[in-house]
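User: Study the fold:
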Amino acid sequence: MRMARGALGIVYEPPLQAAASVAPKVTLFCARFRSPHWLKRGRAMATVFDFLELTDISENTTYSHAAGNLLSVVDQVSSSDLNDNEFDEGDDILIGGVSYNIDLIQKPSSGGKFTLGDGSQQTFGSGMEINLDVVFLTVSNGGDVRHFAIPNDSYGDMNVQSIQIGELRHSRFNDVKLISTSNNEVNAVCFADGTMIKTPNGETAVEKIEIGNLVLTRDNGVQPVRAILVRKLDFRTAPERLKPIAFSKDSLGPSRPHSKLCVSPQHRMLVVDPSGNMVLVPAKALLPRRGVRVAHGRRQVTYIHLVFSAHQIIYANGTPTESFFPGRMAMEAIPETCRAEIQDLFGEDVASDTGNHRKAAAPVLRVQEAQRRMSSFP
């Protein structure tokens, strides 16, 4: 056979003796040669990121974590079929090492929007296939059908709380240009969904708290929530190191917590050190304690930051712990669109290590220091 470079990829020209019986696959522009899987081995594979998984894709519908129809974020999808810089119906893609076929590609034909964890919104609309704001894919692997919304790289980092979809249209030539080729992943340092937060009206699930709601703090009475950051992880693709730390009932003391509590590994808990002082210690540093473990069985988790005008000690499942703390690593992990607001809340020295420790609600121990002293903790 002979292959020649074409405008949209590689053109397959069948040998003359087979011309009567072999019909090449034809698109509007040219025939495409789809290499068998054994030819794909060893080829470089294009990678795309930040696939927002939905339960389905329907017009004029809002998808959110609260409603349960915005499922997770798949952080890495790869395939040599994407090397032509396009999503094509019929392409094979790898999600978590499993091969899926792209069955349907859709694009917006009217306006929609992303609502972010800080309450801000990013809109999207119709456009040309060469640079869409959002691409909607339906993929399948036998009986397993999955649905994704893929945002354009121009949005940068986003903690998506909901997606409002307007009207949709099938892609004109069954293909669209690749988007989301940059990895805009955000690290999570916060509460897991289901955590009960102490408020003036009793305990409220953290995922039901809204901006402006009042929360009880240890040192400053009742304080309003100023911002909320949300990140949902799917551990089919997310790193195992981000799995939550689970605290059993009474693992930090009587009724601390009063029921099982899950937080992200770097989230700090308030404990008593050997000198009798209250210190903040990263959750993962407490793993040697009885009743504290990594929640290896969790397949998905939603992490939620509660942001106040200052760093606070609040109560989660009855145990004192921290609110969002704008340390250097945490600030690098959140979207740029949120950083300016948090700098306004905490002050211009928010990026300074010295400034941050002056603003901490209690003395902070790093992981290594806490682990060295763990044997003497009460």
